[in-house]
Amino acid sequence: MFKGGKDMNEYSVIGKPFPRIDSRLQATGQARFAADFVLPRMLFGKILRSPYPHARILNIDTRRAEKLPGVKAVITGKDTPQIKYGFFRSGMDRPLLPADKVRFIGDNVAAVAAIDEDIAEEALDLIKVEYEELPAVFDPEEAMKEGAPRIHDFAERNIATERHWNFGDVEKGFKESHYVREDRFATQVTVHGYIEPHACLASYDSSGKLTVWANTQVPFLLRRDLARTLDMPYHKVRVIKPHVGGGFGGKILLIGLEYCASLLSKKTGLPVKIVYSMREDLSFGNRRVPQVYHLKTGVKKDGTLVAQYAKVICDSGAFIGPGPLTAYNTGLAFMEPYRLPNFKMDLYRAYTNKVFCSPQRGHGQIQTRFAVDLQLDMIAEELGLDPMEVRAKNALQTGEVTVSGLRIISSGLPEAIEKAAEMSEWKKKRGKLRHLNRGLGMACSGFPCGAMLTAQSDSAATVELTEDGKAIVLTGASDIGQGINTIAAQIVAEVLGLTIDDVTVLAADTEVTPYDPGSFSSRVTFYAGNAIKLAAEDVRNQLATVAAKRLVVSPEHLQFRDGCVSIKYSPERKLPFAEVVRAAQMSGPEGKIIIGRGSFWPRNAEWPDPVTFAGNASGSWSFSAQVAEVEVDKETGQVKVLKVSMADDCGYPLNPLLAQGQMEGSVSMGQGHAMFEDLRIEDGRVINPSFMDYRMPTALDAPREHESYDVITNDPVGPFGAKEVGEGFINASLPCIVNAIHDATGVWVKELPITPEKIVKALKEKGG
Amino acid sequence: MFKGGKDMNEYSVIGKPFPRIDSRLQATGQARFAADFVLPRMLFGKILRSPYPHARILNIDTRRAEKLPGVKAVITGKDTPQIKYGFFRSGMDRPLLPADKVRFIGDNVAAVAAIDEDIAEEALDLIKVEYEELPAVFDPEEAMKEGAPRIHDFAERNIATERHWNFGDVEKGFKESHYVREDRFATQVTVHGYIEPHACLASYDSSGKLTVWANTQVPFLLRRDLARTLDMPYHKVRVIKPHVGGGFGGKILLIGLEYCASLLSKKTGLPVKIVYSMREDLSFGNRRVPQVYHLKTGVKKDGTLVAQYAKVICDSGAFIGPGPLTAYNTGLAFMEPYRLPNFKMDLYRAYTNKVFCSPQRGHGQIQTRFAVDLQLDMIAEELGLDPMEVRAKNALQTGEVTVSGLRIISSGLPEAIEKAAEMSEWKKKRGKLRHLNRGLGMACSGFPCGAMLTAQSDSAATVELTEDGKAIVLTGASDIGQGINTIAAQIVAEVLGLTIDDVTVLAADTEVTPYDPGSFSSRVTFYAGNAIKLAAEDVRNQLATVAAKRLVVSPEHLQFRDGCVSIKYSPERKLPFAEVVRAAQMSGPEGKIIIGRGSFWPRNAEWPDPVTFAGNASGSWSFSAQVAEVEVDKETGQVKVLKVSMADDCGYPLNPLLAQGQMEGSVSMGQGHAMFEDLRIEDGRVINPSFMDYRMPTALDAPREHESYDVITNDPVGPFGAKEVGEGFINASLPCIVNAIHDATGVWVKELPITPEKIVKALKEKGG
């Protein structure tokens, strides 16, 4: 699994394939998720939602519901300060419980707390809401037309976000190009597909303190958002993240339940639990923004990229969500992984009366990669070039600075392309198997390790020691299944010379753990990993001074390995780690409790310019190249993925097993987005809100074979050389499958997903 | 309430009478105590106890109990590693679930976990235990005789602890004395009288982690003791202290339930809760050691103490408990509050087949104060001196060093004696009201602020900040009702210039909060208070550098007051605290998450010499003087306490309301010990295990009037000049009442408690 790169023996814990430290708990059903928590006298909450995509709320009569025995409280927009919420200060457009009007089917209208779920459900039916229906608009291009229904008073022509990027000179670029082509690409609405729906338990007590257990990716941002919208000071709100069954970006934005549960708890003085059904989650939750690309690209004869112009139309849904960041990522994806000297983008994100959009793995970039990597293959075909060689030619290399100011301090992309080609027997197979209905496709990706726009601050961590010489690390980082808790234990163990089992990880409790913005934008290992490493090193340095006295040597000559502190140049002179800890902490007047602290922000990163959006927005950049081999049944249009060859530059895989899991997961998700997944919304209503109808890949759909190679670039800023591995990878997984389908069939499908129907239709058209 | 001393206006939060920050939660019933916690699939545990004071366990048949439907596990000594437990390494004498023999009525024999309490109770009846009864011994002097039954194999003549102190030259002292007298004094068995019996919930999970919610005074020591006795690493054991309904020293030692619940949880893989009934707690819990004093004292003509010799016999019960510390405190109490140039003590603590003894408020010292302060009044009477003046003459003063090496860095005792006399109209009333059956009595006390023997290390704390500029303090200190959480909030608020409401206190969770030995030996405010102060100052210093840049001034000229950071010499130049916090933490690349850390140990304290027990065992010493005025019904022997005048030197009362509470509580407890409380043990069996039969003072018994005065000495080591206030005070509360009864009646009763019967009997004898 872990091939190539540097000698693993340099580390004792880092770089080893440990299973996740919480996997046994989760496998035995002992792990507690948000829905598992119970408190004495706990109530159950339910939310009443709008049946209309766009309507004015004239009146809400809750009297009958309040009279129902067992109902403890009913809240409506009238009960709230109507403070608007948004992921960015720039886009505070959502009252979590609106008093004036509803903007999509599923918008929150009222909430009930009762002694059991059935009574709460029944109470919803007793709430009488008078609506005045308003004309609705569902298509972003329609929404931007003059005279379209206005969804938010402040939004002219329903434009939520508008971005205009311009680097280099595109017009000049096109003039100088040997070949220029234009295509239209469209991506669909996909959901995150986590297996745990939203759930929370909120408990407000008479001391004015609110405690919330929620399956969030961002406990500290949830604290901020709840404090803001409930008008409370931050230190009176405690958010605890228990085990979480996946997030993929879908558990970042407030969607109402935590807010309603908290308000109901505040009103009743009792704990209130709200758990969404999967149907509620799929119908009314947030999802990936669909984007339409009008993409024009100019290249030299040899396929070298010269210029690109993209007009991008995004469907925001009823609220802006992370719009500004999505827009940034969409543009960013043109800047990496390929060298592009001239680029222009006009992006419009429009409000529509539909469920709103959130970050999703590959946030804002996967759509661009789909368009760009497809078109790159089209161009190669037109010019009779090997698309692999075209990619190699355009691949960003270590030391390059992009036209938009991204500084590539480590890039393994050239090697990744080479290895992916090798593993897939590219030269032998690509373009030569169509007679067998088989084909190969390649795609590449690059990704930030935490885009600046999202990170508000450092990640911080502390490390403390027990009397018997074990370590406890407190980190705000949120493990949502990706395994940061395991990585945290590995990092502390490596620094202090302990085993992974010698470390306890306590994470993601806003009252307990140091600040951390959370799990998004692939920042976790890069930011929190470094903070944890700094905290552990702080502990090590304090212990070193104590050990140095006893070993009569200066601290810098000491090493921490195998549970001992020893002298580098004469390792036989050593002290057991636990003995050093006791000496440091428990020796009475000489002692002192050791608390290691770390706080990290990549000092080489910078805020993008607010106008041009130029600037090195990330501390580093990860890269990958992938080749998919598929087989297509030309009669039915069914596609089998035979093999995916994966070469990833995550700098240094701290835990190859977890890295592998991220890669294979990305391939599966990319495959789903490429071939199956499509959330159908008709007149604003989701018509396939179940995993029976919304088709995700199953084990049976999985590629017959995965082969992977870790390119080791030892990033200078990442902890132990590591870069992100959980997100960027998917951006190549999707297009490489589409390109493979073309290699197998000769047809292009430019609108996702590529269903059997579309393939058969395209083959017919080509045939005729 | 708060009189005299220094100008309060120097501080904005310190020195103000805030009610406890958790009082509203507790008053509204929302505070969660150990017994309130529930977990899914939780089991209930019960403990089977020995019916014999001393017996060999021949066989335990648990088969019928195991077969009872609903029973999930039964454990006996066979299931445990039989690692012996003890509060000190020196005295590991208790297997928490013995396999060989039982040593007192109530010793743990087996434990059961079942789906409800009734089934667990029923299962106990189904366990068949074969015992071989052994001869038992209940009197310590009997126990030390040759041929007495041996309770522990290792203990020659059943001696658990033996101490021989010798300072100065006692024989010479007695020769030089003008007057020498000898008396025998005896103290009774008293219980702590907390209103919450022992309770815990233990949850062992498949990751090998044990979490215990327990009403302990010492979460970190409980972690240590459970880890040791269960043979687990410390970092796999998490102890969480919820709200606690009083401890007074009774929730320090392991008494079995946490151990049994943990073992049962380990065996079943399910959470197990054990809650003691008050009857169980009073019958089988731990209590104050009864001590017999043969006290010989020599004085000069003017009452100046010259020499004292004490032979002390202590009844340890079946295990040593905190014996070595109790013995130390017993000797220590001769060294303060009075100057004593020559002292000799022979102390023997013997095992007996009775419930064992633990620390209790006034630990080991109250018994000595009873003997010494009584005898001092006897001596004064014999010599025709005013016992108040005798005390004033012998009172330790600031700067003195005792013959045993105690360094008195601050003493308000002389002023306290003067003020207590004033408040009580001593000169006018004392010795002059016997015709009215009324009398006054005085007594004094001194006390360590954490005796070294107990403290294993520093107390530590961290302080962090929310984005909106509020503070969260993490401290291991354990609030058991005394109010350290409130003091913690006051200290942080004072240092950072915030209000008490701007601070959240998170305490006493061994996985979360920095190490703290716990609540005992009156160390909490002195140790933890200083640690918290240091952590807050660390935060302040980091913020000051940020604010200094913005205000263009050097940091040392800044002050933190009223929610602002301002320049001392021109306060109008200021920044809001929250703005400074944002600038420090949330300003992107320049920012850094601020974590303040503090760790404290009084560097002026030293370990007592292991042989002579000389040495300054505490960072400082508190003092008090009290006068009780009583009225005695000579027919019935009933005693009314009319007034207690309380003058206390706690250095500086950080919260006068809480200090007052401690003083009045001490007076009540002292009154109970003096007049009512007596745990009757016959043939090893407690015969009055209920608060109906074990008589504690009620509101009706309370003194008609309390008058108090705080002597301000501003201790140089204590936080904001504070010393202990919760414990030492009681040591004078008891004897001053006894002395008052003598002043009213002319009779002496030297054996506690002084019941109406004893008074009537003594009056008869005197009369006759």
**Rg of chain A, alpha carbons:** 27 Å
Mass-distribution shape of chain A: globular
CATH C-level class of the largest domain in chain A is: Alpha Beta
- CATH evolutionary superfamily of the largest domain in chain A: Aldehyde oxidase/xanthine dehydrogenase, molybdopterin binding domain
Instruction: Characterize the biggest β-sheet of chain A.
Output: 7 strands, mixed
The domain count of chain A comes to 3
Instruction: Tell me the greatest interface.
Output: A-B, 60 and 60 residues
Tell me the β content of chain A: 15-25%
Instruction: Examine the coordinates and then state which fold CATH places here, giving the name of the CATH topology of the largest domain in chain A.
Output: Aldehyde Oxidoreductase, domain 4
Kindly report how far apart the N and C termini of chain A lie.
46 Å
Total of DSSP H or I helical runs spanning 4+ residues of chain A: 19
Oligomer state equals homodimer
- Averaged pLDDT of chain A, please? 96
- CATH architecture term of the largest domain in chain A: 2-Layer Sandwich
- Arrangement of strands in the largest sheet of chain A: 3-7-1-14-11-12-13
Helix content of chain A: 25-40%
Q: Low-confidence spans of chain A: pLDDT under 50, at least 5 residues?
A: none
Structural class of chain A: alpha+beta
